[in-house]
């Protein structure tokens, strides 16, 4: 390991670019937060490679290649015309077609989509797959909508989006509020609009439409594979540990499933209404039925498991004593106060299944308290990795078995862990996976941008 001095010239340069990002994108707080988190890691990289400054890589990488914002009109079941706002941010295509999910949630705005798209550039680079960074969505709330309303909305959304995506250009997938049903309707509408069966234009499809086995499980499983690797390095394991997992959606359910398979006891999970605590270990089959089949609230769990407890206020989940905490719900769900409680209760590892679930202050607390910390950019990259494997299967017109995909996923997660650890070591921050993931993800994209010229 070589000591890299943080020269004032580089520190001032990075700060100047960051201030410009804030001025040019006012009120986009989540986007500022995501940029700052990456920039904080990059000073030693720029000291060692001043070419990145000469080539204005930071200035270029924070500016999306293209931002699309569009009207999504639709008709509800009562015949009322509704209008939502749709987005697609095509952030960076240096190493492959734009790739990133679509989020349907009332909180969606330009800042949320840009923070997610920016993170996606580095995450996708870390996977080792040929995919660039993008993200999209709409401020549409799927909660309480009928199946027909969901179909009408997604069809209207895709009627416009279809003009900008293609298997070699931009390949969206799911995210919060967008699961197999929504992807199915969007794929159908794309097919109709473009007049051809282009399987590789969306990922997360049903198996019969060209989807990949293990895609549904990939993000949650991948997070647990990554954390297990991190634990193994310290002679520990999920086996015998107590785990809390926030959320009870796609990422959360499959993180719980794999953690339980690895011998952990998962004692708490949540939704946006509150959290459940089951001292004997959560019965995942009940959670799956409530959430995946019946579309119910997590509070209903205690009706079937009277020894379990339900608490309103989802953020209270972090007061449950645990060895490993896996935030798998949403951005900024784990703040400094929650981090202090987790540390006081003896947590020894935190793995982010969600995107940016821990605030900047919370991350600092974990790192300063020697808690093993796996940032989302690296730990939740399993989903997009298997999406890239889905694209590969679509191109080759083949279908791998569940086991074949799962083995590839495990290998990818191990590589991301090793590469992030190595980058942290190379840049004088041994063991710091936040720094390591940012640097490993950045260098490949930056070098490719330079090779492709100023475009
Ligand atoms: P889902 O919509 O399937 O699930 C989200 C879950 O989080 C729901 O249970 C939701 O509850 C809950 N939730 C929302 N806000 C809160 C909150 N403040 N506190 C507690 N629970 C909350 O989404 P995903 O599982 O797909 O995504 C979860 C996270 O993982 C997001 O950050 C996403 O960007 C990230 N991610 C997802 C990937 C994927 O493949 N799906 C890939 C990589 C990252 P409710 O139902 O009440 O809203």
Range of strand content:
5-15%
How many helical stretches? 17
The biggest sheet, with number of strands, parallel, antiparallel or mixed sense and barrel status, is: 7 strands, mixed
Radius of gyration: 21 Å
User: Can you identify the CATH superfamily of the largest domain?
Assistant: NAD(P)-binding Rossmann-like Domain
Structural class: alpha/beta
Shape: globular
Q: Could you say how many structural domains there are in total?
A: 3
CATH topology of the largest domain: Rossmann fold
Q: State the low-pLDDT regions, or none.
A: none
Question: What are the SSEs and their pairings?
Answer:
Layout: H1 8-24, H2 29-48, H3 51-54, H4 57-61, E1 66-75, E2 81-92, E3 98-104, H5 110-126, E4 132-138, H6 147-161, E5 170-173, H7 180-194, H8 215-233, E6 242-245, H9 250-261, E7 265-271, E8 274-277, H10 284-293, H11 301-304, E9 309-312, E10 324-326, H12 336-344, E11 349-351, H13 360-368, E12 372-374, H14 376-379, H15 382-396, H16 402-426, H17 433-451
The structure holds NADPH dihydro-nicotinamide-adenine-dinucleotide phosphate.
Concise account of the structure shown:
The protein is of the alpha/beta class.
Account of the protein in words:
This protein has three domains: 8-62; 66-196, 3-Layer(aba) Sandwich (Rossmann fold); 216-379, Rossmann fold (3-Layer(aba) Sandwich), CATH 3.40.50. By secondary structure, it is α/β, with parallel strands linked by helices. Strand 10 (324-326), helix 12 (336-344) and strand 11 (349-351) form a beta-alpha-beta unit. The longest helix is centred in the C-terminal third of the chain and has 25 residues, at 402-426. The chain is 48% helix and 15% strand. It is built from 17 helices and twelve strands. The strands form two sheets. A seven-stranded mixed beta sheet has the order 9-8-7-6-10-11-12, with helices on both faces. It binds NADPH dihydro-nicotinamide-adenine-dinucleotide phosphate. NADPH dihydro-nicotinamide-adenine-dinucleotide phosphate is lined by residues 174-177, 219, 246-252, 270-273, 314, 328-330, 333, 353-355, 380, 383.
């Amino acid at each position: 390991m070589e000591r890299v001095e943080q020269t004032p010239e580089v520190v001032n340069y990075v700060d100047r670019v960051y201030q410009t990002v804030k001025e040019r994108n006012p009120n986009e707080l989540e986007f500022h937060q995501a940029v700052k988190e990456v920039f904080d890691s990059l000073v030693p990289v720029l000291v060692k490679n001043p070419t990145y400054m000469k080539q204005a890589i930071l200035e270029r990488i924070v500016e999306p290649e293209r931002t699309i914002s569009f009207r999504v009109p639709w008709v509800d079941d009562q015949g009322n015309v509704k209008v939502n706002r749709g987005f697609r941010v095509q952030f960076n295509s240096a190493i492959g077609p734009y790739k990133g999910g679509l989020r349907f949630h009332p909180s969606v705005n330009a800042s949320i989509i840009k923070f997610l798209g920016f993170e996606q550039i580095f995450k996708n680079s870390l996977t080792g797959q040929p995919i660039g960074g993008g993200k999209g969505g709409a401020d549409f709330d799927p909660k309480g909508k009928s199946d027909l309303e969901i179909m009408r909305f997604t069809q209207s959304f895709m009627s416009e989006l279809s003009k900008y995506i293609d298997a070699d250009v931009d390949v969206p997938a799911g995210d919060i509020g967008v699961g197999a049903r929504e992807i199915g309707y969007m794929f159908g509408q794309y097919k109709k609009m473009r007049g051809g069966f282009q399987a590789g234009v969306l990922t997360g499809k049903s198996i019969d439409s060209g989807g990949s086995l293990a895609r549904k499980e990939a993000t949650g499983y991948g997070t647990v594979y990554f954390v297990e690797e991190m634990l193994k390095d310290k002679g520990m394991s999920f086996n015998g540990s107590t785990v809390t997992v926030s959320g009870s959606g796609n990422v959360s359910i499959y993180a719980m499933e794999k953690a339980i398979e690895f011998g952990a006891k998962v004692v708490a999970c949540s939704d946006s209404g509150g959290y459940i605590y089951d001292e004997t270990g959560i019965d995942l089959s009940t959670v799956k039925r409530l959430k995946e089949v019946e579309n119910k609230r997590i509070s209903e769990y205690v009706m079937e498991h009277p020894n379990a407890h339900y608490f309103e206020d989802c953020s209270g989940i972090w007061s449950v004593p645990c060895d490993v905490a896996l935030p798998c719900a949403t951005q900024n769900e784990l703040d400094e106060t929650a981090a202090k409680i987790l540390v006081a209760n003896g947590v020894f590892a935190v793995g982010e299944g969600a995107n940016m679930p821990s605030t900047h202050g919370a991350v600092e607390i974990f790192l300063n308290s020697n808690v093993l910390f796996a940032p989302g950019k690296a730990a939740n990259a399993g989903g997009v990795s298997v999406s890239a494997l889905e694209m590969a299967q679509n191109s080759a017109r083949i279908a791998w078995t569940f086991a074949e995909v799962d083995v590839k996923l495990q290998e990818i997660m191990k590589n991301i862990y090793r590469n992030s650890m190595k980058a942290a070591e190379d840049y004088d921050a041994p063991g710091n996976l936040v720094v390591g993931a940012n640097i490993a993800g950045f260098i490949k994209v930056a070098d490719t941008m330079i090779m492709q010229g100023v475009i």
